[in-house]
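Page 42, continued from yesterday. The earlier attempt failed because a stray header line got pasted into the input along with the sequence. Redoing it now with the clean sequence only.
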Amino acid sequence: MLTEASAPGPPDLRRDSQYFLESVVFKVDNTLFKVPKHHFKYSGANGPFGFLFDTQQTGTGGQAPEGSSEENPLVLPPGNPTASEFKAFLKVLHPLTIPVKYTDISLTEWKAILKLSSMWFFDPIQTFAVERMSALGPPNALDHVSKVVLGERYSVPHWLRDGCVHLAQRQEGGPSLEEGAQIGLDLTIKIYQIREAASRSRSGFDYKGCVNRLVEDILGSASLASDSYSP
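This time it went through. Structure tokens are written below.
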């Protein structure tokens, strides 16, 4: 008969090296999100979260670090991102469906995903967002002005090139005042210069060659050379 002194103790337990995940609580605007910390710490290792979680110490007076609870969340800057943008980003970082239904993500959400993955240095997600957005068909496909704006902002050569070629060749004219306000005065002028050069040409005008030089001037030759996308 086993006595209390000789009764076996609880089995030794160990934490799995991969699947024992910490969580983190974010406050975005007036919304709380509780998600695994893993991808924020490692997938964006070169961004603000990797550095934060590597250096995070216990708070003053022995308080738990930010993000450890609903009472002490990690507060993101108001409005950047918005709660809806952050939720869109989580649809790729922490999808809730198996298999993942990326076709249910709207163009507006993909724009938010691209924005945050670029801002926070989640390079694989940024690349994935560009691929998914490039493959969208009507009515969700990027319009040509958006291709110019986003292509320049996020260094996506084929978007910038396609958008500029379209605006330079468009039969109904170059960028309108509204479109020019979106793409910027400098780029609008350069597109009109290409249109003017084409109108003076007596033979077939090399729109793509001109635009490639423009894209190289804007993004740099390295970005253009590394653009392996082929629609």
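Notes: Strands lie at 23-28, 31-36, 74-75.
Reminder to self: strip header lines before submitting.
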